[in-house]
Amino acid sequence: MSTQSTNVVLLIGTIVIISLMKPDCTAVTEEYNGFKLCVTSRRGIKDLSHRNLTDVPSNLSNNTQYLDISYNLIQSLNGAQFSRLFQLCFLKVTHCGLQEISPTAFSHTPALKFLNISHNNLHVIPDISVKQLEILDLGNNLFTSYRIPESFQNFSHLDLLSIGSTAAPSVSYSDFDPLMNVPVHHLVLGAGIPWKNYESGSLAKMKSLQKVSIRASFCGNFRMFENVLVDLNVTKAKSLRFIAFFPDNCQVNGDPFENLRTMPFIQNLTIENTWINSSFMEMFLKNVWLSSVYDLSFVNMTYNEDTPDGFQFHTLNHTINVSSVTFNGINHYQYKYPTFNMSFEAFSRLTYLKFSGTGMNILPCRVMSALPSLETLDLSDNLLSESGFWWILCSHTSVFPKLRQLSLSKNRFRSLSIISQKMNEMKTLESLDLSFNSISLDGDCSWPAGMKELNLGNNNLGNSVFQYLSSNFERIDLSKTGITAITQEALSCFPKLTHLKLSSNSIRVIPADLSLPTLLSLYIDQNAITSIPREALGGVPKIQTLSAGSNPFVCSCDSHWFVADFNKSLLLDWPLNYTCSTPPSFAGLQLSEFKTSELSCETGLQVAVALPVIIVISAAIGLVFYKYDGVWYTKMLWVWIRMKRRGKKCSNLMKNASFSHHAFISYSHQDSDWVDSQLLPSMEGAGFSLCTHERDFVPGEWIIDNIINCVESSYKTLFVLSRHFVQSEWCNYELFFAQHRAISVQRDSLVFILLEPIPADCIPKKFLRLRSILRQQTYLEWPNNERKQQVFWRSLKSMLHMADKSVALKDVALAISDKVALLTDDL
Ligand SMILES: *[C@@H]1O[C@H](CO)[C@@H](O)[C@H](O)[C@H]1NC(C)=O
Ligand SMILES: *[C@@H]1O[C@H](CO)[C@@H](O)[C@H](O)[C@H]1NC(C)=O
Ligand SMILES: *[C@@H]1O[C@H](CO)[C@@H](O)[C@H](O)[C@H]1NC(C)=O
Ligand SMILES: *[C@@H]1O[C@H](CO)[C@@H](O)[C@H](O)[C@H]1NC(C)=O
Ligand SMILES: *[C@@H]1O[C@H](CO)[C@@H](O)[C@H](O)[C@H]1NC(C)=O
Ligand SMILES: *[C@@H]1O[C@H](CO)[C@@H](O)[C@H](O)[C@H]1NC(C)=O
Ligand SMILES: *[C@@H]1O[C@H](CO)[C@@H](O)[C@H](O)[C@H]1NC(C)=O
Ligand SMILES: *[C@@H]1O[C@H](CO)[C@@H](O)[C@H](O)[C@H]1NC(C)=O
Ligand SMILES: *[C@@H]1O[C@H](CO)[C@@H](O)[C@H](O)[C@H]1NC(C)=O
Ligand SMILES: *[C@@H]1O[C@H](CO)[C@@H](O)[C@H](O)[C@H]1NC(C)=O
Ligand SMILES: *[C@@H]1O[C@H](CO)[C@@H](O)[C@H](O)[C@H]1NC(C)=O
Ligand SMILES: *[C@@H]1O[C@H](CO)[C@@H](O)[C@H](O)[C@H]1NC(C)=O
């Protein structure tokens, strides 16, 4: 194997110490994880930080899921404060000067999963017990020992425990005993102060540790640190992170990381927020190269060249296991470019290199060809431009022979046409990130055919950007590029498109004719979209991920289908980021809580819903109608109404008339039982005077004369119709009607009672008149049911009530026939 070393000089552009302010990425993630774990509704979020509160507000609504009361003046927590918050899942009380927490503080909040009480003045680790707790941050407090309370045994779901105190410089053997069977995967220990004592074996008790972050320095006593490593080797932790390991004035004696060589489980090693001298770096890397570590990171380090020739690392006669190296944030202590002198040949396994936040403005020549296996190169957040990346003095045989992903984000690149041409040198390149530069569209682009992904986010490009892209692109990120409109025509140039990001633009409308049959993921959040047309999403049949939140949605029927029908599992940001913006009455309402009735929005549905409802109701009414003889009652009602109307009309007329009987009753003698037992007692009992032929006819007179006399002296003529009557008696009356045509026309004077149903065909053909009367005239049907009989009698009585017996029938009959138009008669 070649042991030739290649001198590579990294040219770092900044002269002065650059102070890079980087957020603590892991912490942000934990907090975000907790947020995602807990919050299902925007209403459940209460951020009351920075309010000068002296106590937990007592008027918090009982649906609070997320409560942030950091940066207040709350000194103690107790159960009463949280008694109503049974849904509380995320609680953050940092920077409050908290001094004590009662053991029952969280006994009413069984759902609590995330608790951050770091940066307070707790003098003892609180003796709390919350079964569901997954993330607990007790960092940066003032307790004097790391002795964990017994109650922590009960944290059966605890995954991340962060614990640290600026007043606790030592760890004792039994401190972590209660955590022996708690499934903590990630432990963050310490508060950045130097440790005075560490009793061997303490950390080894936590069997489930996978990830350990130690925030402490061991200056002057690195043997202690070696013991820590031995214990972490026992826990088989895979990932180690040392934060603030060397303060600026730390004296390193010996080789603190020598144990790394015999720790077979370590995979990831991170050194963070620390001062590193080039002399230490040489020693440290020798250990790493001989270890099992494959992911090595330096985050926010201050680099000091204390060796006269810079960093020297010549001899390497074995390949190293490290395949991923990250430098994220380097502050240069010296006012000069650092010098690296090391062999790259040994890095045959290096696939990932990140060199970010270093101030680099010129890419060292040999990097392009000296890292044969490099697949991902991240040079984001530097000061590179076209001329610095393709430095004019360099000449190379091969340019990143295996590079697939290149990030040049957050640099100073300008020309898209030049970049596109240069990328053709990188034969295997698939993905390029040019976000956060100053790219302009300055001419035609010729992208490498194999390139599939381009990120141009956060460059000011405009609507024409699509013309400058390759039709081979599968993933395009155009977030925040000043796009105001998209058309299907522009998008149809990308037949292989699977991922499209258009977040943070000013797009108003999603084209309804959108048709991207291969698209899997679409981001259109933070635009000016008011609704998402159903047809547009019909044009992306394979969509798996959609992000469309933070748009000014109109809460109307346009949004209804989206709320009601769209498969929400495809939405990354549902429901929190979807809120109504108009109409004003709904502004701020979470879209998921916008309930408009489906009925008011969909016509087809209206019919579909209304029809069965109407049918059911009709059927129900019909059934009730049938069951309770609605037909009979309706007929009665009809009779009643007509009578009342007629009654009014005729009342004047009748005022002066007089009769000797209210009614003449005509019936077949076969029905005389009914007449004698029912009709007469009922009516006469009610004060009506009735004339019947059996009782009142004058003997000796011809029956017809008798009838006529009786009829003439009665206000009404009442026929009791039955089959017998129709067949035997009717002929008499036919004659009568023939003679007294005028009277017969005044139909109101005739009342028909149907004792039994008489089908029309039972009536002999010759009795046309009767048929016609039964068809036109209302008649009363005799019911069998007793309740109905009541109604029957009442109807009958009111029919006869209109009678007044003071005027002779004749006059009345004449008067009536004068007033009432003659109806055409079938006779
Ligand atoms: C707790 O809050 C502090 C202060 O905001 C933050 O730095 C830390 O990351 C938080 N802890 C977790 C686990 O999120
Ligand atoms: C809190 O108090 C400080 C000074 O006592 C004041 O400057 C600040 O405005 C107050 N903050 C709020 C939110 O009331
Ligand atoms: C709770 O009370 C405080 C005053 O004590 C008030 O400012 C706040 O609006 C109240 N919050 C609710 C949700 O009622
Ligand atoms: C939550 O509070 C509301 C009123 O703010 C009340 O109607 C409801 O019953 C409470 N829920 C429970 C479970 O206490
Ligand atoms: C753990 O919880 C059980 C009941 O769930 C309780 O009896 C026991 O005292 C708790 N242990 C500690 C150390 O608090
Ligand atoms: C780590 O553990 C392995 C066995 O699991 C052992 O061989 C090795 O010596 C240990 N290393 C240290 C530094 O304790
Ligand atoms: C780094 O070098 C400086 C001298 O340049 C020395 O004072 C300091 O102790 C060294 N620090 C470490 C961590 O080696
Ligand atoms: C970077 O590390 C230094 C110590 O070397 C520390 O003072 C500073 O706060 C760190 N910066 C960030 C952003 O963590
Ligand atoms: C390097 O990795 C290989 C497997 O990838 C492994 O067998 C070997 O033990 C590792 N080297 C060290 C020093 O752990
Ligand atoms: C270790 O590093 C790899 C990348 O090299 C990463 O994917 C993995 O998440 C890291 N593991 C931990 C526990 O940080
Ligand atoms: C590798 O180099 C070391 C010195 O750094 C030497 O001790 C060792 O014998 C060499 N091994 C081989 C295989 O050449
Ligand atoms: C929700 O919107 C905010 C602000 O627009 C954004 O920062 C956040 O990432 C979005 N959340 C999701 C899950 O997309």
UniProtKB/TrEMBL annotation:
Cross-referenced Gene3D superfamilies: Ribonuclease Inhibitor, Toll/interleukin-1 receptor homology (TIR) domain
Cysteine pairs bridged by disulfides in the record: 365-394
Matches recorded under SMART domains: LRR_TYP (SM00369), LRRCT (SM00082), TIR (SM00255)
The organism's place on the tree of life at top rank: Eukaryota
Classification via PROSITE patterns: LRR, TIR
A GO term from the CC aspect: plasma membrane
SUPFAM superfamilies assigned: L domain-like, Toll/Interleukin receptor TIR domain
Chief place of localization: membrane
Family to which the UniProt record says this protein belongs: Belongs to the Toll-like receptor family.
Annotated protein name in UniProt: Toll-like receptor
Chain's gene name: TLR-1
